[in-house]
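Weekly sync, protein design subgroup
Attendees: M.S., D.O., the rotation student, P.L. (late)

Item 1: inverse folding check
M.S. brought a backbone from last month's batch and wanted to see whether the design step gives back something sensible before we order anything. D.O. pointed out we never logged the input encoding, so this time it goes straight into the notes. Structure tokens as presented (104 positions):
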């Protein structure tokens, strides 16, 4: 995945003592995405806006808030998270890379 004519924010978003790290990318139309790495482990995130998480490398197990069953996602796949919700993501064995798009 490659993005053209964007502004990249150098200061990282750091979560869970550095185990999840992302950088924000701003687009000319005002939209934004984050590009990140998830180290092996399990992490819960809350959402303000709806999000699409695209896995670009590795794999993960995801449980959306309000659901009991998990789903596995690998590179080339995505999952959507509702606004004002959340999800638990588990990277097991290797770093998982992602692109998060904030949906309107």
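Designed sequence read out in the meeting:
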């Amino acid at each position: 995945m490659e993005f053209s004519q964007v502004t990249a924010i150098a200061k990282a978003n750091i979560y869970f003592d550095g185990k999840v790290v992302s950088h924000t990318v701003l687009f000319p139309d005002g939209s934004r995405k984050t590009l990140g790495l998830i180290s092996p482990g399990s992490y819960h995130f809350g959402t303000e806006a709806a999000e699409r998480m695209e896995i670009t490398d590795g794999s993960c197990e995801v449980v959306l808030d309000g659901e009991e069953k998990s789903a596995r996602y690998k590179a080339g796949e995505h999952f959507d998270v509702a606004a004002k919700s959340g999800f638990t993501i588990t990277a097991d064995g290797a770093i998982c890379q992602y692109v998060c798009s904030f949906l309107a």
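Discussion: DSSP finds no helices and eleven strands in the chain. The longest strand covers residues 50-57.
Action: P.L. to compare against the previous round before Friday.
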